[in-house]
Amino acid sequence: MPVLTPLEREALHLSLLVSGWAVAGSLPPGLLAAWVLARLRFPGKTLLDGLVHLPLVLPPVVVGYALLVLLGLNGPIGSRLHAWFGITLAFTWKGAAVASAVVAFPLMVRAMRLSLESVDHGLEQAARTLGCGPLRTFFTITLPLVLPGVLTGAILGFARSLSEFGATITFVSDIPGETRTLPIALYALIQTPGGDDAAARLCVISIVVALAALLASDLLARRLKRRLEG
Amino acid sequence: MLEIAVRRRQGAFQLDVTLAAGAGVTALFGPSGSGKTSVANMVAGLSRPEQGRIALDGRPLFDAAAGLDLPPERRRIGYVFQEGRLFPHLSVRANLGFGLHRVPAAERAVPFDDVVAVLGIEALLERRPARLSGGEKQRVAIGRALLTSPRLLLMDEPLAALDAARKAEILPFIATLSRHFATPILYVSHSMDEVLQLADSLALMQNGRVAAHGAVEDLLARPELARLTGRGHAGAVLRASVVAHDDAAGITRLSFSGGPLLVARSPLAPGQRVRVRIAARDVALALDPPGRVSIQNCLPARVVRVGPAEDGLVDVLLDCGGARLWSQITPQARDHLDLRPGQPLHALIKAATIAAGDIAATEGAMPCASPSPRRT
């Protein structure tokens, strides 16, 4: 295997870092949103459902611009984040992770919601009659049963984050070593005369990473399934 | 003692149940849609009545007036569901331990090894539920509920999803549970056979109400309830005891207050006190004792009451040595014999019509000594 150039290593490292944090950060709220949508009935549920799905149907540039307006240094949220916690999102890799998380969120929620809806509510009732409170029932019964769905959601979200381009470049721009993930590095190379070979190499790297993620998830899903079937 | 007085409207269906269930097995019997499962769910805390009160051993579980509604996990009521509901991601051992571990050690009245032995599930402990047969699943589900040392055990048609062989495998276990572990059981069923085998008292449900409640023998002997218990099930239930077996003839000799009673060979041991169901349609009447006839039981009896013709059949109540027997005959037969109250006659019952399913062991010796007589 050909050794990666420093530029490639940096882009790959950034991509994995950004995607990893994006998935880790949006998994808990995603699971909560999935649970709310799968289990609760309340007025305004359709609206919430629409809001959750919005990043899926909006052009990523719109999402990126909205993030810039809200979370930029002068934005209503971004200025407070900076003043209170010293956190800067705009034009940093953290901002890239936020952009990826927002775009990946609906995909993760969909997968986890489907899985939650297929869990037999009767099992949760049985756990309650066996002396288990609602929260404990969720962690001992519901969560283990939806683990395959959570895994699918996480992989989908990871893959979506890896390929994230539009929202990221709008929100955090293209800063080498900070926000230049694989797709952005690839785009930059295509814009540069004579960058074709390097671009092709980045393409291959992207494909390998995506395939590896899919295979790993397939392996894990099969192991989980075998556990359920005894 | 479980006391229920609840009301709830479910669409056009009005549930209005008042019931007090004591020790032993109380059967909640009725057709599907009569509200049996709704009552069980309310007792367990899985659904909420609109009005009323539910109390167990004097401790209120639900009281609409006081705004009290204990969540299921704080009611200490075991629930065996029709479909078992074992946790698929846990082994049998972990399923059994699931509730057990949430009971404070000082309150654990039901020993793990004891339950495993009585239910005959030692060999299954390391398996996953997906690898169990239907009967095995139900036995594990029963054990799981029992191990929480419940103050009451709810069973919602636990045998409905099983075939006849599996039912025969589990029925004896359930029959011993209530006595062996001193746990009252509320048993929801629409099978009169199960009720006869298990129940001490019976509550008949119809259209969301308890139409009648009392001892199994009494309710089954009341012809006006035959509509609810099923006309085919109408008949008398006698208390008797096993005297001896005649293996060569394939019969078992019982004794009751009206004399000896020959029935099909029963697996129960001599000395065992039993409850015997004699269907009214299986009892024929003769004014004179017949001579040479295949019918084994010819019991002297006296007519107590002759009912009106209903659906082309007449119910005749007989007194047979102090025990009550019912006979179902046609109006034509009634006229032919000219039946009147006080008239002496003979009740004829074929031994073969009283099969093993019609005879249930009552208090006394229990088939508990050999924990697992049958295994799949």
Automatic annotation (TrEMBL), chain A:
UniProt key word Transmembrane: yes
Domain ABC transmembrane type-1: 12-220
The entry's keywords: Cell inner membrane, Cell membrane, Membrane, Molybdenum, Transmembrane, Transmembrane helix, Transport
The protein, known as: Molybdenum transport system permease protein ModB
GO cellular component: plasma membrane
One annotated GO molecular function: molybdate ion transmembrane transporter activity
Chain segments annotated as transmembrane: 12-38, 50-71, 83-109, 138-159, 198-221
A Pfam match: BPD_transp_1
Subcellular location: Cell inner membrane
Membrane topology category: Multi-pass membrane protein
